[in-house]
Amino acid sequence: MILNIILMKNNRTYFQTFDALRFFAFVKVFLFHIPIWGFPVFDFIKEGGGAAVSFFFSLSGFLITYIILEEKKRTGTLDLKAFYVRRILRIWPLYYVMLVFAFITPFILSLISITASGDGYTPNWLMSAFFLENYKMIATDGFPNVSPLGVMWSLCVEEHFYLIWGLVLYVVSIRNIHWLVVGSIIFANIARGVFYMQGWSFLDVCTNIDYFAYGAVPAILLILYKERMELFTETLASGVKISIIIISALIVLTLPNLALPFKLLIEPTILGFAHLLIIAAVVFEKKLFTIPQKNILSRLGIYSYGFYLTHTIVINLFVKIFDKKHIPLESPLVVLVFVGVCLGGTIAAGMCSYYVIEKPFLTLKKRFS
């Protein structure tokens, strides 16, 4: 039997709407990295790529927590080795291919007579290989000078989260999971306070662990209190459901554009609650809204990992091409063309990376399910 909310594909739990949400989050990050300003509506929409990255964190927090809790509830334990192998098969292949690409980028650019950008620091490839790029960025207060290393900091945070969350949930019982969530939220706020006073960027797992914890809340509710939550969502009036969706989406869209006192310290908590509500809105059987898997947004969301890792490469390439052809990114039409070719190129690159690199390794995950 296939539930309205959860599809079973290849013996794995699959949540509808998640792929579409991933694509929305990617588009936000993509627009943020488009090096064009001066168009008010465009500037407003593109601001706040970090809000989209934090949503990826919350989504990971939900999925990883759900997977672990479901396994522990079903079997009484967690196969930690299989858990880590699945994470490795999902993240490492494309990550290391992109790392090799970043290493040879200067040679590729020289072959096609394009000058490499001198902005940013020279990468420490050993730190990059061991998922420590985020700490290099914190230490230098800058970004690496080759793509796509600049966006890989979030994957380092993800890897550190997988390591910590898997080990902790292996030990912590299901009935005590809520203390882990509360503790993570408190710890992250303390860590951000320390980092804020030191002038460090919030690019590590300590200052972002609460985003994962907020995402974990709907997973806990789904595993432990599913019947109660189904009854609760069923009693909500349509107007309330619509308001929850609209308000949550508006928070993610507008908050990065608001000037708030101590914004760096306040914003994560507000965004975390918004992420929690958005995820909770789509994971229960009486969900507040659904984007079907046949929808083009959901189909594109399947390739979001590849989109995320390749989009800065494509954007920077077309920046160089437009500059070499002396085409200024000033008029609305040229901007529209530029965004269109960058998005199209990213989609093509992401789809290729999925079928050539990601999918062969994803099929191996079945052996560890």
From TrEMBL:
List, in alphabetical order, the Gene Ontology terms for molecular function in this entry. Answer: acyltransferase activity, transferring groups other than amino-acyl groups
Q: Which InterPro entries match?
A: Acyl_transf_3_dom, Acyltransferase_3
Give the highest taxon in the source lineage.
Bacteria
Q: What are its GO biological-process terms?
A: polysaccharide biosynthetic process
| Regions that span the bilayer | 20-39, 51-69, 94-116, 151-172, 179-197, 209-225, 237-259, 265-284, 305-322, 334-357
Limits of the Acyltransferase domain: 18-348
| Membrane found in the keyword field | yes
GO cellular component entries = membrane
List UniProt keywords, sorted A-Z.
Acyltransferase, Membrane, Transferase, Transmembrane, Transmembrane helix
Q: Work out whether the entry's keyword set contains Membrane.
A: yes
The protein in question is named Acyltransferase
Q: Which organism is it from?
A: Cytophaga hutchinsonii (strain ATCC 33406 / DSM 1761 / CIP 103989 / NBRC 15051 / NCIMB 9469 / D465)
